[in-house]
């Protein structure tokens, strides 16, 4: 009997490195997008809170629609442009769009600085839509490559971990550069951000684009995508699994009929709502709720969060193997809940612990929690796709569609009801305190419930048909893509 996993499923170090940096441009730009978009458009460009929220919502809707389109088209593409590879072709299109649009998203409107705000709103909207389309092209195809590079569970977890590690490194880099730029160009106002700081965001954007371009070159030169169409690759895999069986071919309609698809989608969405809401409103929480801190903490606090997240990502493969996806997920959510308690109680702890220390501790716990839960949610989705890579981009596209739409609506609604004006400092401080505490905590509880609902589910593990001489019948089996990691000698059927 042939083994499930061949030696070819062991991903080389060169491929892992090239793959892991393939999302760095997206990660760098997303770090600025979620952390500083509201700050830039409200405090530098002088849009209202609601208008800044609508810009983010427009971007998220464009991203959500683009992910669905790219997911379908990427799966349908055969060999890509000039046989470059179906995933890498779409990835390259995304890179070009991001490089050409993102510098304009965080820069004063070129040629219309003194135009009406509605004209500037349209100007930024155009570049935001192009940026989000490109971002989606790169994200969806990069995720879909995981299941095509290897079918070994441990290798997939490793790729997810390396990918997320570079995500964290990218965020650390952005916050480190932001803290340096904000500190060097502090001027007279060391606690607030004003239109005079526009050049800081322009410089940071150019640095982000430059570093991202370098990583994209490494990715496209160092990673070789299979030249075979997906269907041919899958057919060879099916034949190699067992001489008497075949893998059920899945279409997008088949995935939509699986209950686990919706459960995994909700978990994916909830995790990203926690990550993005905290990332967006942490700088505003520091500026308006803890108004006594130096504005450098707008970068230092998230920096601490992502450093702790990076350290937490290293043992993730071993933890996943020992505890399983679901227990690891719940453990990460407990860290998130602990951080929200600290964000709420930050002033009550002031006599005993300095506000700076409480803030940093809360960010560290948040970083560990979001790093753990993100890696687990990626791995659960990878389990769901399993060996059915023919619809991998579609699955990731729908997951991303749900999270982008949920995040856009949530953040726009928060901004719509934002009471912050020049005369409402007390209300403003309480508002951001509530946002950073209650929303992540509530969503974390929902995620725990959804994870428990998957406790006995065999995600992606009942799609193999064993064909006998008498009849074809379905043989459910414990998928090697779930909590148990099989070695290369494990047969599919004993």
Describe the structure.
This protein is an all-alpha fold and 494 residues long. The protein has one domain: MFS general substrate transporter like domains (Growth Hormone, Chain: A), CATH 1.20.1250.20. Helix content is 70%, strand content 2%. It is built from 16 helices and 3 strands. It has a 3-stranded antiparallel β-sheet with strand order 1-2-3. Helix 2 packs antiparallel against helix 7, helix 5 packs antiparallel against helix 15 and helix 6 packs antiparallel against helix 14. The longest helix has 33 residues. The protein is globular. The N and C termini lie close together (8 Å).
Give a brief rundown of this model.
Keywords: Membrane, Transmembrane, Transmembrane helix. By secondary structure, the protein is mostly helical. The protein is built from 16 helices and three strands.
Give the N-terminus to C-terminus distance in angstroms: 8 Å
Note the overall shape. Answer: globular
Report the major sheet: 3 strands, antiparallel
Q: In terms of structural class, how would the helical and strand content be classed?
A: mainly alpha
Q: What's the helical proportion of residues?
A: 55-70%
What spatial order of strands do you see in the largest sheet? 1-2-3
Q: What is the annotated CATH architecture?
A: Up-down Bundle
Number of strands: 3
GO biological process, one term: carbohydrate transport
GO molecular function, one term: symporter activity
Family: Belongs to the major facilitator superfamily.
Pfam families: MFS_2
